[in-house]
Amino acid sequence: MSIFDAFNWTIWSQQLYRLAVFRFDKSRTKLVTDNAQLLMSLALIGVVVGELCYIGYKIHLGESIIEHNQGKKTTHLLVLILYLEFALTVICGIYFLINAILKRHKQIIFFDKLQKIDDTMRRNFDVILNHGRFKLISILFLLIVLLYYNVIVTIVIYIATRQALKSINAMIILVIYILQAATSGIFTHGFIGYVMAIYVRVVKLNLKLGEIVRYPPEHLELIYASNSELCMEMMKFTKIYKQLCSCVDELNRIYGFSLVLHFTHDFTLLTSQIFCMFYVSYYEQWADSKLKILALVLWMILNILKITFICFVCHVTRNEINECSLNLRKFSNEANEDDLSDLVDMFSLQNIHLKTEFTANNFFSIDMSLFYTIISACTTYLVILIQFKNYEDENTAVGVVN
């Protein structure tokens, strides 16, 4: 089974949501661009832009309703937050579609690089990757993503806002949001799958290096007949290492700004979810609000898990790459050869200047520190939103609405 078979379902799901504008060739051994899918993506972008305009129109109507109901204690700020979440979700969906068109060739290059790494590891080190297990895990996570975004989120939003979903317009907005949120879920599934593909290969490389560096220098000199053979072995490891780092850089170029929008959306969604829980629990009776709170808690927990999983996968992959670099350095120290030391010194110097990590268009690094930053920022903005809500209620009580 090749890497293309391992990512078969991932690519299919991306094609379904127009996040992949390429297909397999007839031999199913490589990816090629598809003009028909390109035209379908362009048409879908036009539809989604229309959706965004519709949401903007509804926001304008919502402001008019607020202005004509100044005597009632309405959820003005809550309505604004929900519309903002809808609009930001659709904007992310539009950019994901555009990015899939613009970066389709780079996505194909990324797969080609992974395929070359697999061939090199199999040829030089007899390392064979279990693509079947990777495919099974990918399918399992895909089913979870589709179930979450198309079923659970729909039920959660319906329970939380069923009193407001009595009009056709509200139902249309709900359907639009579910479709665009599912696009975000497929984007997350694909990105995590690509990062995990790099992680698996780095782990295999580290295991192979670990088998070598565990031996003392005198035993290592017995394994290799000459200094040149030892240098050649070292060059094979460094070559694969650089190719894996190149795959990380390729992912950063493909998904850089998409990740900026993605985390911005997740941050605003998490803040909105926590604020909605506060609002419902504070302003409504427990008998009326317990189902809403339960739905919001479920929605929030799954959103936190998604953020955590992305940050965690990128974090452990980066650490594994750094561990590989340390193993290469240890390999050269154990060998105790001048030529090999010079080779690794040059390699180490490159690592210092070219730091390998997952970034969102160089705005921030994607690791567990980003997760902690998001949680702390949510706390700060939640306090600000509560203050705004209290200010709104005070003005509403005296007949003034801002």
Automatic annotation (TrEMBL):
It comes from the Eukaryota. Signal peptide: none annotated. Pfam families: 7tm_7. The chain crosses the membrane at residues 38-57, 77-98, 139-160, 172-200, 259-281, 293-316, 370-388. The keyword Transmembrane helix applies. InterPro entries: 7TM_chemorcpt (IPR013604). GO terms for biological process: chemosensory behavior; male courtship behavior; sensory perception of taste; signal transduction. Keywords: Cell membrane, Membrane, Receptor, Transducer, Transmembrane, Transmembrane helix. The keyword rRNA-binding does not apply. One of its GO terms (cellular component) is neuronal cell body. It is found in: Cell membrane. It is a multi-pass membrane protein. Its main location: membrane. Gustatory receptor which mediates acceptance or avoidance behavior, depending on its substrates. Belongs to the insect chemoreceptor superfamily. Gustatory receptor (GR) family. This is Gustatory receptor. It comes from Polypedilum vanderplanki.
